[in-house]
């Protein structure tokens, strides 16, 4: 088993800086008033208990208002016009880029906007495969170019924990380039191979998740990064389940690229973020070409703009970017260390309550310090879809299925699971309602 990797606020405590407390019940109640959807009822008048934030988070009024204000007062194509509306739209767009960068400890010039986290990961995979094209890396420092060229004889290493968004792109990458796909296995508790034996001298890239979207497992990023650096491999981090819940600083993490998606960070759908080290972004060929990402265009050929514009062809998702800027402002005002503390309390309470029910089998670590955002479980003898239906009848929204992580479920020897996932607006009372509804399962299905 690997050594436990704790959350950043635990590291803060070990460094002698006392962690700030989680929001108390009164503050959470006030925060919930910012989320209109949480006041609605479902299934015949039952209060909505939303425990599916791992799939998508709900949006506070600040985000809804930011998007609406843009469309009502500033709507124009950014970077394209000299009129006042275009200037205002561009200022709002680039201001949001700066604040989103600050949220993860990165300068604005290293922040690339995409449609979602999946596209951000695909951007890296396709741009790197384009690096093999003749002339694609002309003028690039030879040492950097060597890192970006991956082909036959090279290996790309992933993990069994991956969401399909950080698995299928690398399968396709290996098919296009001739590289070999390898992976870090997990044990029965969901821990990665402690020896990291799949990362070898032939490994040129390691792509891995920060937090498992199924198990909630917090992966030891520094350990994997250190091993990747030993062999000179690039590192690509899927931060979709970590950035919404814990403080994340890309400099401290030491990775080369990180992707996350806006809709899980209380932001709008249709906006994702790729962060990359500037010297790598500057060397990489584009993923999508067209307007806005060019430097000079002639009929016989074109040159491309510097990052991040090089990777933002066409009219961007301006309103969504502005909405995501409002979302990170909202979370920053609360304090991500406090968001993380609240998350840890919810995870611990959920694990404690499920442990009282011997007919429930929790997947992954039982130590709340090693989990972020989610708890998945199975009831042996009852299909997760049936469990989800019983919960839904009581107004409890959870996720059931393989959660876009089929290989992980196969490794755990379960066809599917039920997942409860949380955010800053989730309360202990909602956990109580969840487990009370879950208690109907053995009554209905005769589980001992």
- Helix tally equals 16
The computed structural class is alpha/beta
Number of domains: 2
Strand neighbour order, sheet with most strands:
4-10-9-8-7-5-6
CATH superfamily of the largest domain: Type I PLP-dependent aspartate aminotransferase-like (Major domain)
| C-alpha-based Rg, rounded | 22 Å
CATH class of the largest domain, please? Alpha Beta
Shape: globular
CATH architecture heading of the largest domain: 3-Layer(aba) Sandwich
Helix share, percent = 25-40%
Count every beta strand, where a strand is a DSSP E run of 2 or more residues.
17
Could you tell me the CATH topology label of the largest domain.
Aspartate Aminotransferase, domain 2
How confident overall, as mean pLDDT? 94
Distance between the termini: 31 Å
* Strand percentage: 15-25%
Largest sheet: 7 strands, mixed
Poorly predicted runs = 1-10
GO molecular function: cysteine desulfurase activity; lyase activity; pyridoxal phosphate binding
EC number: 2.8.1.7
Pfam families: Aminotran_5
Organism: Mobilicoccus pelagius NBRC 104925
Secondary structure topology:
Blueprint: H1 8-14, H2 25-32, E1 41-42, E2 46-47, E3 49-50, H3 61-74, H4 84-103, E4 111-114, H5 117-130, H6 142-148, E5 155-159, H7 168-177, E6 180-184, E7 203-209, H8 221-231, E8 234-238, H9 250-253, E9 257-261, E10 272-276, H10 278-283, E11 294-298, E12 301-304, H11 318-334, H12 336-355, E13 361-362, E14 374-378, H13 384-393, E15 396-397, E16 399-401, H14 406-411, E17 417-421, H15 428-438, H16 440-445
Parallel strand pairs: 3-15, 5-6, 5-7, 7-8, 8-9
Antiparallel strand pairs: 1-2, 4-10, 9-10, 11-12, 13-14, 14-17, 16-17
Helix pairs in contact: 3-11, 4-11, 5-7, 12-15
Domain Aminotransferase class V: 49-434
Region (Disordered): 1-23
InterPro entries: Aminotrans_V_dom, Aminotrans_V_PyrdxlP_BS, Cys_dSase_SufS, PyrdxlP-dep_Trfase, PyrdxlP-dep_Trfase_major, PyrdxlP-dep_Trfase_small
């Amino acid at each position: 088993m690997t050594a436990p990797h704790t959350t950043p606020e635990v590291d803060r405590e070990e460094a002698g800086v006392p962690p700030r407390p989680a929001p108390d019940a009164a503050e959470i109640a006030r925060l919930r008033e910012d989320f209109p959807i949480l006041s609605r009822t479902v299934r015949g008048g039952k209060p909505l208990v939303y425990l599916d934030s791992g799939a998508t988070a709900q949006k506070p009024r600040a985000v809804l208002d930011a998007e609406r204000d843009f469309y009502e007062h500033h709507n124009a194509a950014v970077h394209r016009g000299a009129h006042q509306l275009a200037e205002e739209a561009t200022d709002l767009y680039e201001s949001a880029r700066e604040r989103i960068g600050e949220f993860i400890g990165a300068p604005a010039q290293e922040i690339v906007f995409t449609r979602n986290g999946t596209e951000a990961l695909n951007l890296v995979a396709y741009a790197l495969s384009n690096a093999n094209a003749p002339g694609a890396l002309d003028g690039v420092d030879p040492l950097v170019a060597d890192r970006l060229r991956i082909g036959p004889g090279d290996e790309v290493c992933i993990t069994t924990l991956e969401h399909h968004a950080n698995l299928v792109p690398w399968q396709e990458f290996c098919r296009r380039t001739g590289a070999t796909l390898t992976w870090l296995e997990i044990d029965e508790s969901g821990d990665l191979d402690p020896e990291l034996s799949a990362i070898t001298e032939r490994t040129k890239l390691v792509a891995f998740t920060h937090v498992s979207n199924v198990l909630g497992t917090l992966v030891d990023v520094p350990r994997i990064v250190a091993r990747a650096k030993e062999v000179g491999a690039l590192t690509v981090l899927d931060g979709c389940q970590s950035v919404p819940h814990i403080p994340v600083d890309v400099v401290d993490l030491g990775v080369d690229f990180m992707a996350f998606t806006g809709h899980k960070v209380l932001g709008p759908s249709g906006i994702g973020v790729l962060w990359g080290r500037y010297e790598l972004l500057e060397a990489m060929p584009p993923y999508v070409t067209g307007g806005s990402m060019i430097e000079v265009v002639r009929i016989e050929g074109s040159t491309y703009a510097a990052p991040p514009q090089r990777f933002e062809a066409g009219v961007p998702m301006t309103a969504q970017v502005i909405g995501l800027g409002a979302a990170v402002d909202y979370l920053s005002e609360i304090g991500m260390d406090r968001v993380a503390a609240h998350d840890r309390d919810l995870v611990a309470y959920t694990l404690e309550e499920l442990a009282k029910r011997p007919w429930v089998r929790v997947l992954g670590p039982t130590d709340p310090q090693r989990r972020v955002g989610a708890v998945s479980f199975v009831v042996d003898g009852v299909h997760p879809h049936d469990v989800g239906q019983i919960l839904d009848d009581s107004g409890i929204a959870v996720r059931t299925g393989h959660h876009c992580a089929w290989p992980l479920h196969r490794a755990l020897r379960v066809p599917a699971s039920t997942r409860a996932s949380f955010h800053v607006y989730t309360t202990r009372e909602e956990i109580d309602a969840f487990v009370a509804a879950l208690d109907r399962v053995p009554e209905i299905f005769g589980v001992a």
